[in-house]
Design goal:
By secondary structure, this protein is an alpha+beta fold. The chain has 20 helices and 36 strands. Strands 29, 30, 31, 32, 34, 35 and 36 form a 7-stranded antiparallel sheet that branches. Strands 6-7-8-13-12 form a 5-stranded antiparallel sheet, with no helix packed on it.
Amino acid sequence: MAISSNSAPSADAASTFMLMYGRFEAAHQQQLESLGLPKPLWKVLFKKLLEEKLDIGEWVIFGEKCDGMQNLSQHQLCLQKDELAAESDVFLVDHIWTTTASSVQQDLERIPGLLERMEQLTGIYPPLGSGELDDPLQDINVPVVMSQANVSEDQARELLRKHGGDIVEAIAAASESDQSKSDTLSVQNQIMQQLQTEDDKPLQWKTCAYEVEQYSLDGSDQLDGIDIRVPVGLSAGDVTCQVTSKHLKAAVGGKTVVDGDLHAPVEADEATWTVEKGVLTISLVKHTAEYWPKALLNEQRLDPALHKKHVQRVARDLWRYLQGYGYMARNSRQELSRSTSWYVPDGVGLALCHSETPNMRCLPFLFINDSGQLLPFNIMWPIKTISRGQVLTRDYCPAWLTDPPQRQGYLHSIFPDTTQFALDAHAQLLSSWAEVAQNAVRATLSSPSASSVGRLFVRSIDPQVQTAAADAGFELAARPEDADIVFDDEPRTNMCTNHHGINAAFFSTENAAMVLQRIAGAQPWLSPAFLLKRQIREFIGAALMHNHSWWLLKGDQVAQGIDMPTVLTDNWVTAVRHVDVGYVVAQQCAPSMVINDQLCLLERLVLLTPDNCVYLWNGPLSVFQYAVSTSKDKHSEQPCQILQPASVVSTDMLAQQLGSNVFARFVDGSEKVVADVMRLLLGLDTSDGKAFGVFRLLFAVGENNSPVLYEAHPMQVAEQQAQR
């Protein structure tokens, strides 16, 4: 991690340091100012980065966590020196694992030793095979299971216990009839009987500690070789391996990783072992070529399905511990794009206790060295003077989050508590939405009449737009000067342009969602959306009540033309934690919106004239398609997915999936929703009567194949061309 530089004579060490510091300050000034690190500590930070100095251990000791203290560890940090003055020093906190939102589960399965380390570090679950899962979330989820499944408290606890704390599976199990349970069990028994035959002799399997593979040493059908692979991590110490004809013992860095009697004798003198990419592979030659049902007599195989379920549960619960940061980077095409990384801090970072009046500040910092490498750390510094024996604390809430009820919701995603507060907040929001819908004011639309619009000029290289305008009966002008309405993204005086007053309602993703809530409330055509900076409690309540739903997380543009990618998750904790990296809206993605692992959105382009007349472009309809995975088997899909840019597909595809008659009703229904949306939005009209608006509305498939408004925003000609 050291900064690369040309060596300089010792007499010039100070000037060399200042030159290097100057480059550091120029590259990191904006970031350091946004973090609020006092300017006198910038050089201190740079020097520690230069020396890779993680010296917080000289100042603190680990102690047992006191009752009432909240952090992500079993320990807390206490100052061991006499005093640490406010803003007197800055410390580096390392990251033990960095990943992406969609790679958490894969990393736990792929990186040697990571799953075990995350279990030990977080204390989420005891080792597999213990029979019981000591999960504090079970108590927290009991009220939700009781209300959703209509069962008693004891029954709710038993359901959660049987299903490993998985709230969705517990509710689903309660809903099954006795007959369906019997049928399911019968089918499972038949499958197991078919699998458990004499020919079922797997050559590979896993245990909690290692993987096993049997094979032929010379390519024949004789199974005379067997490998035992033990994940030991990339920083493994010295390896010792003792093999006798009937026993195997291996240790790494003084810690025993395998110890037991072998299933059958081996040729001890021919045993070999290697460590590569964090995996210790022990290769043994059997004394007699035969199939081994076990490698060690005391081993217990992992059930692949149960193991995958366990990994996914760890991945889901790790979102309590993961912390994130966003940054701009260039992709393979050298285009700027928004990227987000998630990390688990080291033991020091996890042991910082939460406080409403903290004495430390701890934030992620991205260090760019002279080689252009991006090296992430956390930096922390005292914001109050701390005395010997005092506990080091930080505020786990973002600095902008000051509303006490919403802080409670945010902290609930890190330090779980009872959920009734969120359910109550959600119920109150639903009541207010219903009241808004009942009292919604709708303006009157004019009867469509192309002749009332006058001459229209459309600047577009796409002939579909001009053809659609002509088909709608508009008279097209050859030049902007000859037109009454100019559709080319440029504001003009003394003539109508496409800069309608309603446009102001859609200047951001967050504002658009807020406006629709305020003017429409609960509508059958509006997909519920929650403002993650203002409605955290309400969102948590909705996610608990709609436990089968997925959630689309959306952010605003971070720069002109650079959007934040949409994230899909079924984990409300994941959604709340994405507030840290700039996501502002969580929109419900009901199961009906996904067809054959595709989220399909029908596009409608709308022209709103100054006299409140609405026109729909009559050109070919477009369907935008996102590839997603929302399998009914909650342990086969990825619980968090970053959606790739949508592809444009033919409407024929959606028509085939829905059926031609259903699709026709879906399209007709979208036209009615367009009119209703515009009537509601016209109450916000602040135009001077000389502007018209062009809007893009996207519709998903809702319950009973009805159209559900997914997104609405103003559209410019340039944007429309880019979509085609």
